[in-house]
Amino acid sequence: MSFGPRRLGSRVAAPEGLSERDRATKRRAALLASMVRRLRGRRWRVVPHPGPIVGEQRGSGRSGALRAAIFGVNDGLVSNLSLIFGVAGAGADNDVVILAGVAGLLAGAFSMAAGEYISVKVQREVFERLIHLEAHEIGSDPGAELAELADLYLRKGLPRDLADRVAAELMKDPAVALDTHAREELGLDPDEGLGSPLAAAGSSFAMFALGALVPLLPFLVTTGTHAIAASAVLSGISLFGVGAAMSILTGRSLVLSGLRMLGVGAAAAATTYLVGRALGVRVL
Q1: Count of domains observed in the chain
Q2: Max CA separation in the chain (angstroms)
Q3: In 3-state terms, the chain is what percent helix, strand and coil (to 5)?
């Protein structure tokens, strides 16, 4: 079995000597792998059952992008709606409401973008480090990795002889071996890529800003009660639409999902509006 300098795509360098930091990380590989699995989402205990399924199942890549877009718009919409209604409820002038809305839009969008950038960047670094260490293990001790892979398939329910044969076949090619260990041992999917921090930050900024702009628009063209009423109607329609869009991911009723999101957003806006009215603070 030959494990020379190889790459998995363009992400993994050939095995080489480990530094002290890499050895320390290798000792914590099991903990990091469990963190990766938690980042990928909770594993639910389900059993196969008969019955029709409407539509095709969606891959995690597309559904993840759709989920991020929907929740980004929702975060911007609900947070800025609540902020604007709180300031408007306090009796502030229209210019102050607009200032608060623009400040909330920019502050929230930059906060979301920064948080998403750091999150994806750190996750990418963890994934790259784990794959690098796995490549080193395959290159330096292929026998142990072969036994480890066979044990993984044994725990999945394969007979010992079949698990050994499958593991031996997969370990013949270093690239296939690394891909398999990344999936089975670390819970990573190399086909999905590791994600771009800048792309994640940019999309988060844009989606949050788009949602936060909705309740602000009426105050740019009118004032007073008319602006508040128009903002409430426009935001309500948008909240229902965002909730209905979530049914694409959840498979729940479109109407119920829309009404649930509308209720949550309306409760948040009403609460901040009433708090502003109670405080009665007029900003000069």
Answers
A1: 1
A2: 80
A3: 75, 0, 25
